Amino acid sequence: MTDVLFLSAVGLFALALQTTSFGFLVRGAYKPELMMILVVWASLRISFLKGAGFAFLSGIFVDMLSGSPIGLCALIYTILFVVCGYFNATFDIDYPMGRALTIFLATLAAGWAVMLMRWLDAPLGFGWQAVSWVLLKSLATAVAALVVLPVLDRLWTGISGVVGVR
Amino acid sequence: MTHLVYALLRPFQEAVYGIHRRVNGVWHGYVALMGVREENVALKEELRGLRREKALLQDKENENRRLKKLLNLKSQHEFPSLVAQVVGEDAVGWYRTFFINRGSEDGVASSMPVSAAEGVVGKVLRCSSDMAQVLLLTDPNLSIDCRVSRTRDRGVLKGAFERGCVLRHISLKSEAKPGDEVVTSGLDGVYPRGLTVGRIESVRKGDQGLFLEAQVKPAVEFSEIEEVLVILGRQGGFDIQPGLEEKR
Predict the structure, then answer these.
(1) A11 touches chain B (CB under 8 A)
(2) How far apart are CA A158 and CA B217, in angstroms?
(3) With an 8 Å Cβ cutoff, are A118 and B140 in contact?
(4) pTM > 0.90: yes or no
(5) Alpha-carbon distance A152 to B92, whole Å?
(6) Over pLDDT 90: what percentage of chain B?
(7) Which residues, 6+ apart, have CB-to-CB distance to A57 below 8 Å?
(8) Is the ipTM of this complex over 0.85?
(9) Nearest CA-CA partner of A81 in A40, A136, A36, A109
(10) Which of B52, B76, B100 is a domain's end point?
(11) Cα separation of B24 and A68, whole Å?
């Protein structure tokens, strides 16, 4: 129950931050995806069912708070949660650079999935501009993850006493 | 006698005066300065308060100016409209949207046009009872039927992220050129006719060569919008049939 409450609280805080003051700190289009960081963190720390549920629900929330069709981010986050969990089990990505790289790749994949959906919806030539945008946004998210993930670990350790901070 | 008295008194006088001067110096330099310091702190606090007040007044004045512009726009429209404040932005940034503090309780419904004093902002995407999400002009998911104001050529305007917007399907015979104003045609049934959208930056032949395509810079600076006007048209649009726009 603690993990559900923790994820809910942090998730709501991240959403509130992303829809309000985050845009002032980082230019709107390139702002880091805090929810993506949270989903990847959940894939490393939280049990499968609860984590997958969180990934799906947070995706639904993000869908409702952005212009995406309802279900798109939910699907992307859930798939990325499962894939990141698998990668961690297979290659052990649970160290700072590994996690940052995973988040970079996850944001890149999510960005291209969104772009693909957009292109199918409105086939406008996005070109290099969209590629560089997705790359920069993924980079910004990975850099933010280097700061956010240790904070999340410390908070989680303090609350649950289960996971040691590497 | 006088000399004697003066001679006797002088060392005492000098001593007492010296003490007085020192005490006075200490008084003015320390005890009185303690008061000055407190006064200084109080004045600094007051100055801070006045600066805050000035910033607040400046903010109110700016808000007043913006609202006046919106009210001017509102009085120009023949249909009911509603002023709303921008309260949030898109959660992830993959889409170009923001949130306003009016919802279905205020009469806002999806697909209603949203405008600012400078021009068209976008349209309502979704709304709850007291909040609505606005899809911006620069988002490729938004299309608006537009005209080049000078030549009256029609085209479909689509968002293009950072590139602003692209006006597509302009006739090859068009004489549209950079600097021309683009306005809504009113033929899409969503936007009323004649709202400013932006200015043409460049014109080129489309990919297939069948139409011209114009790069359009939106009239609105999206990062600076604080208040918008929601045009409360009938749900489902303005119901304008092609060809009947002149009768409006």
Answers:
(1) no
(2) 51
(3) yes
(4) no
(5) 20
(6) 16
(7) A74
(8) no
(9) A40
(10) B76
(11) 76
For the packed helices A127-160 and A2-19, what is the interaxial angle rounded to 10 degrees? 140
Count the neighbouring beta carbons within 10 Å of the beta carbon of residue B9: 11
B162: DSSP letter: G
- Helix, strand, or coil (residue B105): helix
> B13 and B57: one domain?
yes
Using a CB-CB distance cutoff of 8 angstroms, which residues of chain A are in contact with residue B207?
Answer: 125
H-run or E-run covering B167: strand B165-170
Q: Which candidate, B89, B198, B175, B188, places its Cα nearest to that of B133?
A: B89
- Could you tell me the two tokens for A94? 């649970």
Output the pLDDT for position A166: 46
pLDDT in tens, A91-125: 877 788 888 888 899 888 888 888 888 888 776 66
B20-38 core/surface letters (b: 16 or more CB in 10 A; e: else):
eeeeeeeeeeeeeeeeeee
Select the residue from A66, A80, A126 to test the B interface by mutation, using most B Cβ atoms within 10 A: A66
Name the residue facing B92 among A62, A122, A129 (closest C-beta). A62
Pair of tokens at residue B4: 């004697």
Look at the block and give the residue holding tokens 């995407």.
B125
Nearest to B173 by CA among B211, B227, B209: B211
Check if CATH label 1.10.1760 holds for domain A2-8+30-160: yes
Q: Which of A15, A18, A19, A39 to mutate to test the interface with B (most CBs of B within 10 A)?
A: A19
B218 plus B176 within the same structural domain: yes
Cα gap B91→A77, rounded to integer Å: 14
Domain residue limits, chain A: 2-8+30-160
Whole-number pLDDT of residue B201? 92
Contact B135, A67 (CB under 8 A): yes
Mark whether B95 and B60 lie in a shared domain. no
Q: Using CA coordinates, name the residue in chain A closest to B136.
A: A67
- pLDDT given at position A75: 92
Is B91 within 8 Å of chain A by CB? Answer: yes
Angle, vertex CA B139, rays to CA B62 and CA A16, nearest 5: 65
Residue closest to A166 by CA, chosen among A104, A107, A103, A99: A99
On whether the CB atoms of residues A140 and A26 are closer than 8 A, the answer is yes
Residue A136 to residue A139: CA distance in whole angstroms: 5
Domain boundary among B76, B96, B128: B76
